[in-house]
Amino acid sequence: MLASYFLLPVLALATPSLYKRDGASITQAISYVNSNITAVNNTLNTFNKPKDSITALKIQVHTTELTKSVNSAASVANASAPLSNSEEFDVATAVLNLQPNINSLLDNVVAHKPQFGTAIFGFSASPLVKKDLQDAEKAADAFGAALTPKLSGAYQQAAPIIVQQIDAKFDEAIKQFSSASPF
């Protein structure tokens, strides 16, 4: 009996074909992504001293949750029917409000490159940061690919441009963590 209280919500989330997904679901998923961006950014803002393995671990945990939330948003978008005009507007607004937060987070990650250079007990976490950035970019691309066909008209035409801008920002950050120098 107790297991059913836990399994029912999990099964509801795991079987999107049984439940209609719509613009509100996508907007809610974007909101969750945004809250995860805030969590990573806030933790990054406390990452000020070298060899701070504890904060680096917290950043890793939040980053993993962020990437999972983006992948979940992609699943929600994939399971959704094409959006109505009002849903498109709400989703487009949410995405446009999300983009500066993505840019801010990526700038903040790059600004903390020196701390990542000694984050793991004095050793560099840069390869891990690079991998996390690549995984997050892949998730963002999957979300963009899932959302674009649900849009129409000008929204559908603008979506690849926004994805391209986000990819360019990710590529800049990844490049910073691709160099051998920790600084």
From TrEMBL:
<dbReference type="GO" id="GO:0005576">
    <property type="term" value="C:extracellular region"/>
</dbReference>
<protein>
    <submittedName>
        <fullName>Cell wall mannoprotein</fullName>
    </submittedName>
</protein>
<dbReference type="InterPro" id="IPR021054">
    <property type="entry name" value="Cell_wall_mannoprotein_1"/>
</dbReference>
<dbReference type="Pfam" id="PF12296">
    <property type="entry name" value="HsbA"/>
</dbReference>
